[in-house]
Amino acid sequence: MYEMDYINGKRVPPMIINEDYVLDGEHCGTIHVEAGTLVIQGKNSGTLDVQMGAKVEVLGEQSGSTHIATGAEAIVRGIMSGSITISDGSTIIVEERGRLSGSLRNEGTLIIRGVFGGARSGDGEIIIEGNGYIKEPVTRNGMTYYQ
């Protein structure tokens, strides 16, 4: 059983994905991908939890906390931003036009063919391929920004 979200003061159940599913339009709230592949063509604002053996493909935008469990995979062709965790034995691939930004905890594998910008920690592997790159921060007035 998963916890409910509170959106605009109302309790909202999380979306549970157990088979291949395409998310068009806009969704606000938690998504748990237990099995199959979730394709985000639109936008999700909320937590994304991709469990063992499941997969997510972001063509649109995912903003919020994202957790990629051991044995799971994410492919980013659009934008993924927020607090991102890559577990040991899992992978995020940022394709050529993809953007990954935010605070990254990497214990798995991150393959960058597009761009990544943000703070990072963990003992995972970062592989840069093709035109991929890591955007370095700019510091102004004691604050760090990734433009």
In short:
By secondary structure, the protein is mainly β. Helix content is 0%, strand content 54%. Strand 24 and strand 25 form a beta hairpin.
Number of helices: 0
Q: Looking across the biggest beta sheet, what order are the strands in?
A: 3-6-9-12-15-18-21
* Order of helix and strand elements from N to C terminus: EEEEEEEEEEEEEEEEEEEEEEEEE
Strand content: over 45%
Determine the mean pLDDT: 94
**Low-confidence residue ranges:** none
Describe the sheet with the most strands. 7 strands, parallel
| Beta strand count | 25
The portion of residues assigned to helices is: under 10%
Q: What is the radius of gyration computed over CA atoms, rounded to a whole number of angstroms?
A: 15 Å
- How far do the termini sit from each other? 39 Å
**SSE-based structural type:** mainly beta
Number of domains: 1
Give an account of the 3D structure:
- The chain has strands at 5-7, 10-12, 15-17, 21-23, 26-28, 31-33, 37-40, 43-45, 48-50, 55-58, 61-63, 66-68, 73-76, 79-81, 84-86, 91-94, 99-101, 104-106, 109-112, 115-117, 120-121, 125-128, 133-135, 138-140, 143-145.
- The protein has one domain (5-145).
- The chain is mainly β.
Question: Keyphrases for this structure?
Answer:
single chain, 147 residues, mainly beta, seven-stranded parallel sheet, 0% helix, 54% strand
